[in-house]
Design brief:
The chain has 884 residues and is of the alpha/beta class.
Length: 884
């Protein structure tokens, strides 16, 4: 016999899971546990027969060979189970039971266990009845608080939506979800109120309510939720003693109190926010003592101001005028500023204060007359609740932070919003420590720790930012590190340099420093480390390079191009591996999209359009709809971008593995035509780029690891007999192919627009001109000497590129013939030989030697003697001509 069952005191999620599993495993008997919650028992009486549910008493004398457990990982033994019984567990709680040869365990952390089974039902395409859909919706709603509990996932919501499409009856759901407390429950609830006590555990208020029951009362978990709603606490533990056992039910509203972890110490478990345990053969006194110890050990302190505050923020002087403050608010987009004299906080200036002053024409007055003063600040060790209270009381969007009497930073309303709803910023605070440790070579990790210690000892914070973090999240990390110091990067680098006996190169204008690691470096350690001071930037005018000012890490990340590049990893001692994701980069990576941070991003810097496309195609992402609209709005501004900056971005695209994908996208967006009207793209060009890669793959050529200077010509000997050798860089070859269809005037205009170097331009001209010769090069009949004269004027690099441009077998054969034979043909006869024959030096030498080379190429002469004989004949003719 095979059965499906769940835990005692069965709730709606367990009942729905039993039924859903019976649809997936029709050869199993859906067996109800002996004890059901009151609403579950009522539902089973009304609909159990229609749903195929079987009472425990119906178990036959047949041995139970297989048990499918849902919404639990253990049950009390049932008669006819034995040591050979196999278990299959489907549970959404943390797995506490280990799989073995008789036990299969599956499941994920979703809000309701029913969701896991619905997903399998949908995957198999099974049909369900309306009452089945209703029960499953009840299961999801009860375990997720009608999709409102913090344990609810998107998978639960999708499952619930599907059940609605399958005609779940909401009137039945409402009837069984909302039911009044029974008389016994009301009596127990009153006793719990009288016995409850509130304790402060590491800064959190926790309610503990204990009661001794003479008779068991159903659905005690609903009383815990009522207690939590009644008292202003962060967690509630309800302890009920009955017949020598103590049942513990717990709920939490903060991550720092993980009730699932706490109740594992009592043999129970569950989620972070909801858990239960049963202490058999114990007493309230013993359980309370154990619970107190577990709370002290496992409840984490609440988040402090120091964990979310921003430092190095912009401030105003009280002596500034209102007009000056208005200009700064427009420049930085802030809604307010701390007002500071020296390092002493004077007060807070808000946008509304400024607006009122401007309305009354008071722009020449100093700020000191308008600011909020008094004790409107917090200290780093204060809790987030204190910040929230100050914001509410004084209607402020930001609260200053003061440490030891000195201004230290601010906490903003946005910080609190994202803290309250972490999904708004993609999971800020998550740890990437394990991934970081796996990605970094040990010697480099040790070096970063040394740098971190130096920064922390100076009171600074150190972060890895940008592309490394993005690629680490994607599972393809590089070792190209961008290190940001929240402090003075130059001072920090100098101190680190002394420790490492390394040279330092600084750039004070931008607050950057390079620590150059001379001598023998350990494996995995780069030649240098680059540090930059956290900074912000603003654009005086669109398309111009920004002005830079020192700032906080948060504002430093805000100045970056796309959300996926705004993440940072903190390296500080007490925050090592912590992910900073203020702008939802992690969420956008998961959704595989490219999104700018604000609506003027492409206006301020139109080169971001090319970068957006490059990242989109490299990562296989998609530019989100709004960002694509902003690209369209900013296309005209490409005209105002310098050629050097456009060329830099174009060369980066040509350095990608398959640049044609980005060029196709740029063409469709209208970007190529905006750079120059003659720039376009076609399917034929994509094929040429693919052929070029194939040609490179047939050589021993290796691309430089750094971005090409584009003009470098690297020698490479073919390994398959191909005549091509000495290719230019792959990126420059792409550029030559891209521009090969342009006429001379168009190519000149494009090169002038992009400020292409003369060295690079020389190849582009040659490839374009050689392309014009392709018709002749593939003529039906062509002498070897004609092939020579067609190809000889062009460089080896141009011939290499043209071999990818044309897929004609005739052209390929003639290119190979030139490289293998014709290009190396030289007559043995030279000018000295002709002079010995009595002919005067002059242009005639070139004519005679050219005639001899042509004869040699066309195999009209082969031996040195035949070349000399031809030279004698041509000389006689030339002498006669000179005599006349």
């Amino acid at each position: 016999m095979k059965i499906i069952t769940s835990h005692e005191r069965t709730d709606m999620d367990a009942l729905a899971s039993i039924h859903a599993a019976s649809l997936l495993y029709p050869d199993y008997v859906a067996l109800l546990p002996a004890k059901l919650n009151r609403n579950v028992a009522r539902f089973a009486v009304l609909y159990g027969e229609a749903l195929g549910l079987t009472n425990r008493q119906a178990v036959t004398l047949e041995p139970i060979s297989d048990v499918l457990l849902v919404d639990t990982q253990a049950i009390a033994p049932i008669k006819r189970m034995n040591a050979e019984t196999r278990y299959h567990i489907i549970d959404h709680h943390q797995h506490t039971r280990k799989a073995d040869k008789r036990t299969i365990i599956e499941g994920d952390a979703v809000g309701a266990n029913t969701t896991l089974l619905i997903e399998q039902i949908r995957e198999r395409g099974l049909d369900i009845s309306s009452i089945s859909a209703t029960l499953m919706l009840l299961g999801i709603y009860e375990d997720t608080g009608s999709l409102s509990y913090l344990t609810t996932t998107a998978r639960d919501v999708r499952a619930a939506a599907w059940l609605m499409e399958e005609h779940a009856a909401l009137q039945i759901v409402q009837e069984f979800m909302h039911h009044a407390l029974s008389a016994a429950q009301r009596e127990v609830y009153q006793q719990l109120l009288n016995s409850s006590r509130t304790v402060d555990i590491n800064g959190h208020l926790v309610l503990v309510a204990s009661i001794h029951l003479d008779e068991y009362v159903d659905e005690l978990s609903s009383l815990v939720n009522q207690l939590l709603d009644t008292f202003d606490v962060q967690a509630c533990f309800m302890l009920c003693e009955f017949e020598g056992d103590v049942q513990i039910i717990a709920r939490s509203i903060v991550d720092e109190i993980d009730v699932g972890s706490i109740l594992t110490t009592l043999g129970g478990g569950g989620h972070t926010r909801a858990a239960a345990a049963l202490a058999e053969g114990s007493s309230l006194t013993k359980v309370e003592e154990h619970l107190n110890d577990a709370l002290e050990a496992r409840v984490e302190p609440p988040l402090s101001v120091a964990s979310i505050m921003s430092t190095n923020v912009h401030t105003l002087s009280p002596d500034m005028t209102v007009g000056q403050a208005v200009a700064l608010m427009r420049r930085y987009g802030h809604e307010g500023f701390p007002v500071v004299r020296g390092d002493q906080l004077v007060g807070i200036l808000t946008r509304s204060d400024i607006d009122r002053a401007v309305h009354h024409g008071l722009t020449d007055l100093v700020l000191e007359r308008f600011i909020h003063t008094g004790p409107i600040y917090v200290e780093p060790q204060d809790t987030i609740d204190i910040v929230r209270d100050i914001m509410l009381e004084h209607n402020l969007g930001q609260v200053p932070v003061v440490q030891n009497g000195h201004f230290a930073g601010i906490v903003t309303r946005t910080d609190l919003i994202k803290l309250q709803a972490p999904e708004l910023n993609g999971g800020k605070g998550a740890s990437l420590r394990e991934k970081l440790d796996e990605a970094l070579p040990p010697a480099l990790a040790d070096l970063l720790v040394e740098a971190r210690n130096t920064a922390n000892d100076m009171g600074y914070s150190l972060y890895i930012v940008g592309g490394f973090v993005r690629d680490l999240v994607l599972g393809a990390p590089t070792l190209d590190l961008d290190l940001v110091v929240e402090g003075d990067a130059i001072a920090m680098a100098r101190r680190l340099g002394k420790k490492l006996d390394a040279r330092i190169r600084t750039h004070s204008r931008f607050g950057t420093a390079k620590v150059i690691l001379d001598g023998n470096r350990a494996k995995g350690v780069p030649e240098s480390l680059d540090f930059v001071t956290a900074r912000t930037e603003f654009y005086e005018r669109p398309t111009e390079l920004p002005r830079v000012e020192y700032s906080s890490i948060k504002q430093d990340l805000y100045r970056r191009d796309f959300t996926i590049n705004t993440m940072a990893i903190c390296l500080d001692r007490d925050r090592y591996g912590e992910l900073l994701d203020y702008y939802s980069g992690l969420r956008d990576i998961r959704n595989r999209r490219i999104r700018v941070l604000h609506s003027l991003s492409f206006v301020e810097d139109p080169t971001r359009i090319l970068r957006a496309v490059r990242f989109e195609q490299r990562l296989g992402f998609e530019i989100e709809e709004r960002s694509e609209e902003l690209i369209s709005d900013a296309l005209d501004l490409i005209d105002d971008v310098s050629g050097e900056r456009l060329r830099h971005e174009l060369y980066l695209i040509l350095g990608e593995k398959k640049p044609e994908m980005a060029l196709v996208r740029l063409h469709r967006l209208g970007v190529l035509a905006r750079i120059h009207p003659s720039l376009t793209w076609s399917h034929e060009q994509s094929e040429m780029f693919a052929r070029l890669r194939q040609v490179f793959a047939k050589t021993d050529y290796m691309e430089p690891s750094t971005h090409p200077g584009m003009g470098a010509s690297l020698s490479a000997k073919p390994n398959d007999g191909s005549a091509i050798e000495g290719p230019p860089s792959l990126a420059l070859s792409y550029l030559a192919l891209f521009t090969s269809s342009l006429d001379r005037n168009e190519l000149g205009e494009v090169s002038q627009r992009l400020h292409i170097s003369q060295r690079d331009l020389q190849l582009l001209h040659q490839v374009s001109e050689l392309r014009d010769e392709l018709d002749m090069l593939q003529a039906d009949v062509l002498l070897r000497s004609q092939i020579y004269h067609l190809l000889q004027p062009f460089s080896q690099e141009a011939r290499f590129v043209i071999s990818a441009l044309c897929d004609s077998s005739v052209v390929q054969e003639r290119l190979n013939l030139y490289e293998k034979e014709l290009g190396d043909v030289e007559p043995v006869v030279d000018g000295h030989y002709l002079q010995g024959l009595g002919i005067k030096p002059g242009p005639v030498y070139g004519i005679i030697l050219g005639r001899i080379r042509d004869a040699l190429l066309d195999q009209q002469v082969t031996t040195p003697e035949e070349q000399q004989a031809l030279a004698h004949a041509l000389t006689k003719t030339a002498v006669k001509s000179q005599a006349q």
